[in-house]
Specification:
Oligomer: single chain
EC number: 2.5.1.9
Keywords: Repeat, Riboflavin biosynthesis, Transferase
CATH architecture of the largest domain: Beta Barrel
Strand content: 35-45%
InterPro entries: ATP_synth_asu-like_sf, Lumazine-bd, Lumazine-bd_dom, Riboflavin_synthase-like_b-brl
Helix content: 10-25%
Number of strands: 13
Number of domains: 2
Subunit structure: Homotrimer.
CATH topology of the largest domain: Elongation Factor Tu (Ef-tu), domain 3
Protein name: Riboflavin synthase
């Protein structure tokens, strides 16, 4: 479990295809405190630490994960920056919303406009996920817990304040980018209850 509050920006140091994809990611975490087998969300994708060094960790990424995330559609390249979050521990502050790290699909940025110091982004969600996105609801985009401003069909808007742009990779966002979308778990269950006629 995660909160969608980004705690580090990592950088892809190497990518290798060996059946699955293996990536080495540089970070500023104290890796002595990160156990082998620990979960770290990388741009919102929950991945398992399978090797580590003083300022890096490695993960294996399955074909299934590649097919469902922006990793497969856009590919990670050496030098790419990633939003990182370590798994939630008992007693940690829940500053965002409950995020599983299980990406539901890939959305695309269709518009990126500056509004004062803020960045206004409009995304297009896959058709099968759009119904789960609600105004003033939460979504996780590239692992970041964000509030939806408005929804129109498959498109929804997000406003990013300067702080968010600075402490995440969102300051680099551009029209056409593919992003990992995880819908709010609560929205999924409410929709399921509605389908069953219980809401």
């Amino acid at each position: 479990m995660f909160t969608g509050i980004i705690t580090d920006i990592g950088m892809v140091r190497s990518v290798e295809m060996r059946g699955d994809m293996r990536a080495r990611i540089g970070c500023s975490y104290d890796m002595a405190g990160v156990d082998m087998g620990a979960s770290i969300a990388c741009d919102g994708v929950c991945l398992t630490v399978i090797a580590k060094g003083e300022d890096w960790f490695e993960v294996d990424i399955s074909a299934e994960t590649l097919s469902k995330t922006s990793i497969g559609s856009a590919g990670w390249s050496v030098g790419q920056r990633l939003n990182l979050e370590r798994a939630l521990r008992v007693g940690d502050e829940l500053g965002g919303h409950i995020v599983s790290g299980h990406v539901d699909g890939v959305a695309r940025i269709v518009s990126a406009l500056r509004e004062g110091d803020s960045l206004r982004l409009v995304f297009e969600a896959p058709a099968d996920l759009a119904r789960f996105v609600a105004p003033k609801g939460s979504v996780a985009l590239n692992g970041t817990s964000l509030t939806v401003n408005e929804v129109e069909g498959r498109r929804f808007g997000i406003n990013l304040i300067p702080h968010t742009q600075t402490v995440t990779t969102w300051g680099d966002a551009a029209e056409g980018d593919a992003v990992n979308l995880e819908i709010d778990t609560l929205a999924r269950y409410v929709a399921r209850l509605a389908e069953a006629g219980q809401v």
